[in-house]
Write a structure and sequence with these properties.
This protein is an alpha+beta fold and about 375 residues long. The protein contains twelve helices and 16 strands. It is globular. It starts with a helix and ends with a helix.
C-alpha cells in the first residue's frame, strides 16, 4: 500500500503540471464534449432586459415518427438514440416542437462549436458596414501585417470566409499535436494564428479548416481596437435581438485573451434559434437592419467561382441549393433555416449519429 501511495504522488504531480499546458489538457479532457464551456475562461454576453420570446403553439405540430429505412421509429426515441440533448422546430415564430434529454432543459448551456463560424461571419459583415474593415477583398496583411511573410498578403478576407485560402492546417481533433488541439486547448492563440502558413495557392480550391475562422477572428480583433469581439457581438446582435439568457464566448486565457472564433460560443437552444431567425429575415430584426441584407444574401447564395464550394458560403452550409442554409458544429450542433417554409430547426447533442442534413430537409417538406 505504501509503495502504491509513493507511486501515485509523482503521477498526480505530473498530471497537475501537464494540465496547465495544451498537451496536458488534451490528455486530461481527451476529446471535445458539450461540457467544455466549463473548462475555458470566457467573456460574457448579456441577456436582454426585455427578451424576445417565441410563441408556444397551442397544439404541437412536430414530427411523430421518422423512417430510418427499416421502418418508422418514434421521433422522440430517435432523438434519444442519437444522443440529442435539445431539438426545436420553430415556424412563423411559434415553437411547434421542443424536446430536451439527458437532464438538459431550455436553460441548459451547450457550446456551439463551429456554429460560431457563422456568427463570426455576421460580425465581419457588421464590421464592413461600420467601416472597421474595408472590404472582403482586403488582404489579411492589411490588418495583421506580421502574417505577410507567410503569404497572407495574397490571402483575402473572402478567401477565409469561403475556406479557399490554401491554409496548411490539420483539422483532426484526435491529434494532440495538430493545429486544432493547439487552437482549442492552447493559451497562445494569437501567436499560434500568426504562425500559420499556406499549402496551396489562395483562391484555387475549397478546404474546410478552422484556422481560416481563427485568422478571421484575429483580423476582426485588430479592426475593433480596444473593443473585444464578445463586446462587439453583444452590442451588434446579442442585445438587439433580445436574447433570453446570458451566454459566453470562450477565450484562450484570462488575461488579454482572444475569442476562439472557430468555435466555442456557449448559449441555449432558444437563443441559438434567434440567430437563425435573424438570417431568416435577411439580417433585419423587428424593423432594424442589424446585419446588411446584401451580406446575408452573399453568405447564403450558391457560388462555385474562384475555388469556392457551392455547398459553403461565408461560413454557412447550403444543403439543397434551394435557399435553405445552416450553421454546423462538431458533435452535431445545428441551426437550420428554410426561408421558403419560414422554418428554423435547432439540434444540439453529444454526438452526430445521424445524417442531420437529410433529417432537416425531410422534416421541412412536411411543413
Amino acid at each position: 500500500m505504501m509503495k502504491t501511495r509513493y507511486f501515485l504522488i509523482p503521477l498526480l504531480l505530473a498530471t497537475a503540471t501537464l494540465s496547465g499546458c495544451k498537451l496536458g489538457r488534451f490528455v486530461w479532457f481527451n476529446f471535445a464534449g458539450i461540457g467544455d464551456y466549463k473548462i475555458f475562461p470566457a467573456r460574457e454576453l448579456h441577456g436582454a432586459s426585455d427578451p424576445f420570446l417565441f410563441h408556444t403553439a397551442v397544439e404541437e405540430k412536430g414530427p411523430k415518427t421518422i423512417d430510418l429505412g427499416s421502418g418508422a421509429v418514434a421521433f422522440d426515441d430517435f432523438l434519444q438514440q442519437t444522443e440529442s440533448v435539445a431539438f426545436l422546430v420553430i415556424r412563423n415564430d411559434s415553437i411547434l416542437y421542443e424536446r430536451y434529454f439527458d437532464d438538459y432543459d431550455q436553460a441548459s448551456i451547450v457550446p456551439s462549436f463551429s456554429m460560431a463560424k457563422s456568427v463570426l461571419s455576421m460580425l465581419i459583415g457588421c464590421a464592413i458596414e461600420d467601416g472597421l474593415i474595408g472590404a472582403v477583398q482586403d488582404p489579411v496583411s492589411r490588418y495583421v501585417p506580421e502574417m505577410a511573410k507567410n503569404g497572407f498578403d495574397k490571402v483575402t478576407i473572402e478567401h477565409l470566409l469561403q475556406m479557399t485560402s490554401g491554409l496548411q492546417f490539420n483539422e483532426g481533433y484526435s491529434n494532440p499535436f495538430g493545429e486544432v488541439a493547439t487552437f482549442y486547448y492552447g493559451r497562445r492563440l494569437r501567436k499560434a494564428t500568426t504562425k500559420l502558413k499556406l499549402e496551396t495557392e489562395p483562391g484555387t480550391r475549397f478546404a474546410y479548416a478552422s484556422g481560416n475562422s481563427q485568422v478571421l477572428g484575429l483580423v476582426l480583433d485588430r479592426a475593433l481596437g480596444d473593443k473585444t469581439i464578445t463586446q462587439y457581438l453583444d452590442e451588434k446582435i446579442w442585445q438587439p435581438i433580445g436574447m433570453e439568457y446570458d451566454a459566453t464566448w470562450s477565450i484562450d486565457r484570462k488575461k488579454e485573451g482572444l475569442e476562439k472564433t472557430f468555435c466555442c460560443l456557449n448559449a441555449r437552444a432558444r437563443d441559438f434559434a434567434k440567430l437563425g431567425r435573424l438570417y431568416l429575415h435577411h439580417g433585419n430584426w423587428e424593423g432594424k437592419q442589424l446585419v446588411p441584407a446584401d451580406w446575408v444574401r452573399q453568405s447564403t447564395k450558391v457560388d462555385s467561382t474562384a475555388g469556392s464550394n457551392k455547398r459553403y458560403q461565408y461560413q454557412w452550409w447550403l444543403p439543397t441549393f434551394q435557399g435553405d442554409f445552416l450553421a454546423q458544429g462538431i458533435l452535431g450542433q445545428y441551426i437550420y433555416v428554410n426561408p421558403a417554409k419560414n422554418l428554423i430547426i435547432v439540434r444540439l447533442g453529444h454526438k452526430v449519429k445521424a445524417n442531420w442534413f437529410n433529417v432537416f430537409i425531410n422534416l421541412a417538406k412536411g411543413y
